[in-house]
Structures are given as C-alpha cells and as structure tokens.
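Predict the structure of TonB family protein.
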Amino acid sequence: MRQIFSTRPLLAVALGAAVSLNAGAAEQRTLATADFNTCAKPVWPKEALRNEQTGTVTLSFLVDADGSVADSKIVRSSGFPLLDDAAVSAVRLCHFKPGTVDGKAVSAWMQMQYVWTLEGGSRPHVDQASVNRYREAALAGDAEALYQLAKAYSNGAANQATTLQQFRETLDKNLADAQFELAHRLETGTNAPKDPVEATAWYRKAAEAGKVEGQLELGYRYEHGKGITQSYAEAMAWYLKAAAQGNHVAENNIGLLHAYGRGVAIDFAEAAVWYRKAAEGGNAWGEANLGMFLLYGRGVPQDLPQARQWLERAAAKSNHNAERDLALMYLNGNGVPRDDAEGLRYLRLAAEGKNVDSQIRLGLVLSHGLLGVAADPAEGVKWQRAAAKRGNAIAENNLGYAYETGSGVAQDYAAARDWYVRAAGRGNGNAQAALGGLYEHGLGGDKDPVRAAAQYQLAAAQNNAEGLYRLAALHEAGLGVQHSASTAAAMYQRAATLDFEAAMRRLATAYEKGELGLKPDAALARAWQAKADQKAAAPRFEFR
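Done. Here is the predicted structure for TonB family protein.
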C-alpha cells in the first residue's frame, strides 16, 4: 500500500487580519508564501493508516509578521479527526514569508489543503454498473437486489466471500438489519467505499422499517449534519421514535436537545425528565447528566445525596464527566466530607479519560503543588498540552503563562506569545490581557503600546480584571491611548470591584494622596488597603 501526501496552497484571501490595515488605493500588498522546505512531511497516524482513512483537509491559518504560524483552524474536515489533527500539527511546523503592506510585514490569514490518499492495498473497487442496476430495487425492498448491491460495493475486497456470507445470513433473518449493516459498511468504509451520504440513505431505510438502532443513528446524523442537511427538528423526531421503543441513548439525546436549546427552547426541567428516563434505564450519560443537574439544581431541586448516587453509578461505568463532577464534590466538600485524596483520584481518572476540564485542573494541581501533591511543573504542562490539543482556550492560555514564566518549560516569550494569540483569538480574556502585557513590555517582539492597548480593550470588554487594570495604567500614563486620569480611575474601580489586588492598592494610594482626580479620603484608602491585604491572604486557587 503506497501512501501519497500532498499540499495544495489556496488563494490567500484575507479572512481577517491580526492588525488593522488602511485600505487606501496607494497601498502595496503582497501575500504570504510558504517555504515548503521548512515543512516536515506529516506523520500518517497509524490508526488512520490501518483503517485506510483518506481525505482532504482544508486549513485556514494565521501567518504572523515573523513568518510563523500563530493560529490555525479547520475550514473543511477530511471526515477523520486523526488526519485533521495531523494536518494542523504539520502546518504549525512550516515557516512562511509573511505578507506585506507598503513593505512592512503584517499578519494575515491564508488557506491550504492537505490531501491524504492511498494507492494499492486491499480496498474494494466498486462495481458501479451493478450498483446502478440494483440500487433502486434494493431501496424498494428487494432482498436479492440488496445482496447484489452489497456485493457490488465490496467488489475486490480481500475478505469479500466471508463478509458477503455474513451479510447473507443477516439478510435472511431481517431485511432492516441488513439495510443497517450496509449503512454501517458505507459509513466506516469497511468492505465498501466510505460514503456518508449513501450510508444515510440506508440508515433511513432501516429506521423507516422500525429498526431502533437505525432511528437512533438517523437522529444523530440529522443533529450533527453528517451525510445530510442538519435539522434539529428531524433529529428530535427520530430520537422520539427510538425512545418510544425504549432506547436509552435516544432518551439522553432528547435531554441534550432540550438542555442546549437545539431546535427547541432551552428547558432544563424537560431535559431532566429525559435524563432521568435514560438514567433509570442504566445509560451512563443519562446518569451523569441527571447527577450534574441534581448537583447544581438545574431543572430539578438541588439534591446532593441523589447527585452523588447517580454520579457514582456513571463513574463506575467510566463516564469521565461524572468523574469530573465527583472530583469537584470531594475537593470542595460539596455534599460529601472534603477529601482531597478522593477528589484527586477522580480528577486523575477524568483527565486520563480525556475530560478537558479535568486535564486543565490536574495540570494546575501538578504545576503548583496543590492538594498535598509535590509540584511537578513539567507534568503540569503535559496535561495543559493535552487539553490544548482539543482547542481549549483556557489550556492555551495556561501554556502561554508557562512559557512566559518558564514554569515546566524553558522560558520563551515568543512561544508564550504564540499560545496567547491562539487563546486570545478564541476570545479568552486572560490571554488577551497577557498578550497585551507582552506587547507593552516588548517581550517576544518589539514594544507596541498601541497593540497592547487593543488587547487590553478586548479583555476589558469582557470585564476581565487584569485587562481593566492594565488599560487603566496606560490611560494614566498616556501610552498607546489618550491620557485620562478620570478614565484610569474608573477602570481601576471596576478592576478593584472584581477583586483585582493591584487595582485595590492603586486606589488605596490614590485616595490617600488625592491622585487620579480623586479627593483625599483616608477612610476609603484604609478600606481598599484592607481589601487588598485580605485578597493577598486568600487561597490562590479554588476548584469550581
């Protein structure tokens, strides 16, 4: 089996630049170009290769002014997460000649396709003539035509005789079961070409014949737009049919639609009804979701003993969301005696199960030596990376902080900036404030108070305390923004009311000395100083 990989650069349309550009007619612009000698060939994921997964990934990525890739996102998936992730990893290794405006390098977005193909091997070669001959009759319910269609799709497969015999045995027992089996083959590309649209057609036939698994799968495909136009209303309709037959996965999925307002108004009470049905049927996700609702009083009265009971049932089935919630119950002493060891046990189980929230929390525990655990910043960074690979902005921000401070990694302001850019691009206020700090102080690049102020403003717009404080300081000094003592005072006030210690101390000094246009007030000065001291003495981390 020969592996073929190629890249296709697309027209670098300006999807959104990282800096503001004046679009005057006199501007001279050049687009970013790739130096493919710097692009390491991506490693074909072993599992994807084993399953003969192929496809084309279209990526959009931000080329920074220094030619590095600052951010990336998937515009169109290959249909296989492993290939998508490998393409994202590969593009970050490339170096580009940045685009320019009037000769000055600027950040800009561009696109590229990664094409993953296989030649040779044992993939079936479709007998298209037979497909055309038998498909219509098979859809009309002709069992023999369905068998011939399965044969045509699996033509040339190494194990064709065995799999066709298995298909015949299924067909002889139940037509709907065979329709579902053909759909599954087409969905997974097992003994048939991978074709999500054709798979959907056969899931529909099985669902219409009353096969509950077909109804569930068709509902899922409508919910997520997989091989069909997304429709929450159709998803709900098919889930209800499956639930009427006692399918507990469908019951939980109906609860999710109500909980998140997908095609219906958000209704936690109705969601709780369906979660309970699923939970009482032994569905682990129903148990986890009902436990979470009982834990927080969402859609039902808060009931911590019942929450613990349902969460423990789900956790016993390795449901990682339930493990996450149990970890927080024990770490906070919420409904159970506080037990850091038990909380940490559940936290690690959830993190190892790829629960992103738990990976972030475990990373903080290890980085800072919390809960009686010896500090291991390098191990902490490992868990933040695991969460960041899932595109989590909090983890990306935490990695930025690790590189900025040299905690668990070698201090690297350029790398810190890269991680902050990713998180800031996802709207993370902490990252926006931190990125502004790097711009303000020239860490990882030139000083740029204007860009610093822009990032602080983004953070302040989200009521981020640090962003407010840093922007207030710029207004006080007149750096990158207009000098304004009154604006600075107002922003310090907002940051202080959000418990930001440095803002409290600045207000204490301002009231003591009559600065920032504030009248001297010894009582207010003492009050803000006391609040700052109280904040300094409080625990740094709270698990929520």
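The domain at 3-11+29-118 is CATH 3.30.1150.10 (Fusion Protein Consisting Of Minor Coat Protein, Glycine Rich Linker, Tola, And A His Tag; Chain: A; Domain 2).
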